[in-house]
Design goal:
By secondary structure, the protein is an alpha/beta fold. It folds into two domains: 2-187, P-loop containing nucleotide triphosphate hydrolases (Rossmann fold, 3-Layer(aba) Sandwich); 198-262, Peptidase S8 propeptide/proteinase inhibitor I9 (Alpha-Beta Plaits, 2-Layer Sandwich). 40% of the residues lie in helices and 22% in strands. It has helices spanning 12-19, 41-47, 63-73, 78-91, 107-119, 137-152, 164-167, 208-217, 239-251, 266-283; strands at 2-5, 31-32, 35-36, 48-51, 125-129, 156-160, 173-178, 181-187, 198-206, 222-225, 230-235, 255-262. The protein is elongated, with a radius of gyration of 25 Å.
């Protein structure tokens, strides 16, 4: 599941529309599963599903009719339509809504129906532009769980979103766009895979003077909040080296009752990269 983020005007929606074959790039080429989308747009569209940020639904139809209509539009044989409708409805928890009019659905259910219409032909790639826009926290969580389930079943997802906090829950690849270019990317569990320097939070009961003396002697960068009895330091060593630091603190009779590692999330990563870009541009 790839998360694509960037400031307004970075080119995210344009890129997604080019990938979906709705716009043509001025130069270069786009391949979906090895198929050139410019030369074979029809074949590519069978391989992917695209959900725009402002999607349209037919309010006068039932959920079942809507899914069936899109199934036929994607070229699914008529004798297979009923089975596909039931399959998608089961997958998206829409079975008890099949005979309900679309106009009566909640915002979250409308979003699920829109996704159902997009995946009824079983695409290998699902492209979503701001899929959580307008959803309440509960619906956003459910949407993230749905993405994880679709991914477990073999579907690749590309998600563009401004709601960075939710992307931590399901994304395992990150693309950052700015001015039409990818300025950074990261794979693995976002915020855990590539942190060379970690931020450690220590909370103590006593021994503040000894604590400060230790970090000054070891030349470890730290910040101290005496009122909250909290010390935060950055550390670039591995786990065994960190264990030695903590052991030395305990041996000095500094009463540390809690320590934790602050994990960099997508928002931290994104803001850090953008600040770096601004600094580099200022220097140039």
């Amino acid at each position: 599941i790839t998360a694509m983020v960037g400031p307004n005007g970075a080119g995210k929606t344009t890129l997604l529309r080019c990938l979906a074959g709705l716009q043509s790039p001025f130069s270069g080429s786009i391949h979906i599963a090895g198929v050139d989308i410019i030369e074979n747009p029809g074949e590519c569209r069978r391989l992917l599903g695209f959900l725009n940020d402002f999607f349209g639904l037919y309010d006068s139809l039932t959920v079942k009719q809507s899914l069936g209509y899109f199934g036929l539009a994607y070229g699914i044989p008529e004798y297979q339509i009923e089975a596909k409708i039931q399959e998608v409805a089961e997958e998206l928890n829409l079975k008890d809504k099949l005979n309900e009019k679309v106009e009566n659905l909640s915002r979250g259910m409308r979003q699920r129906l829109a996704i159902g219409q997009t995946i009824i032909h079983s695409p290998s790639l699902l492209i979503l532009d701001e899929p959580a826009s307008g959803l309440d926290p509960e619906a956003r969580y459910a949407l993230g769980q749905l993405f994880l389930e679709l991914n477990r079943r073999g579907m690749t997802l590309l998600v563009s979103s401004h709601i960075l906090a939710e992307l931590n829950e399901y994304a395992n690849y990150l693309l950052i766009l700015k001015d039409g270019k990818v300025i950074d990317e990261e794979s693995g569990k976002i915020g855990e895979a590539k942190q060379v320097q970690r931020t450690i939070i220590c909370r103590y009961l006593s021994g503040e003077t000894e604590l400060v003396e230790f970090f000054q002697k070891e030349e470890i960068t730290y910040t101290l909040d005496s009122s909250k009895k909290t010390l935060v330091f950055t550390f670039s060593g591995d786990d065994s080296e960190l264990a030695i630091v903590l052991k030395n603190l305990i041996h000095r009779n500094i009463e540390i009752y809690e320590y934790s590692i602050k994990k960099e999330n997508i928002q931290d990563k994104y803001l850090s990269i953008l600040r770096s870009e601004v600094s580099q541009n200022a220097i140039q």
